[in-house]
Amino acid sequence: MASRRQWWRAGRPVGDGPLRLWFTAAAAERLTALGAKAEEAFTASPDGQRLAAWRRAQEELQAAEAAATAILRTHEGRARAGERAGLKETANAIAAADDAQRERAENSGELGLYYREQQPANEARLAQALARLGTFDAQHPRIVAALAILGAHLP
Q: Which of 28, 60, 62, 86 has the largest CB neighbor count within 10 A?
């Protein structure tokens, strides 16, 4: 029986070790050139173009996320993001209160009162809250952009 150190015997590999490959300098040069040509061909192909575009987009996204994170980590950025969150929460609370009032009016059978008095008042309060949010967004576009880049949900 052959030992594991014996790699070749009678024209067949022996053992389960890797077979050693030896390349001449010319063969290595040809393989390197062949690899370079294959890489060029792939880069020029539609798949290569898509991969390059995807990589560029990933790099741009990482740069944008880094910039957005830097903006929001400042004291002013945290304060402005908190202010915007408060404005957004106020608008959401007004909308939720309106829905609750409408549901109570439906259940009690007093929809006329809701539509005559409560709905117009709620719509006016919601319009004011959304106007304040819109004014904030117009005054602080960098904060809004940073929140959007980082995936915060904007109304």
A: 86
Distance CA 62, CA 68 (A): 10
The secondary structure element, H or E, covering residue 23 is none
Which DSSP category does 152 fall into? Answer: P
- Token representation of residue 89: 């929460």
Alpha-helical regions (H) of the chain:
25-44, 46-73, 75-108, 111-113, 119-139, 141-149
Q: Give the three-state DSSP class for 13.
A: strand
Pair of tokens at residue 41: 């061909």
Please compute the mean of the pLDDT values over residues 130-148 and round it to a whole number.
Answer: 94
93-127 pLDDT, tens digit each: 999 999 999 999 989 988 888 889 899 999 999 99
Separation between Cα atoms, residue 92 and residue 86, nearest integer Å: 10
Q: Name residue 9's beta-bridge partners.
A: 12
Residue linked to tokens 């945290």: 78
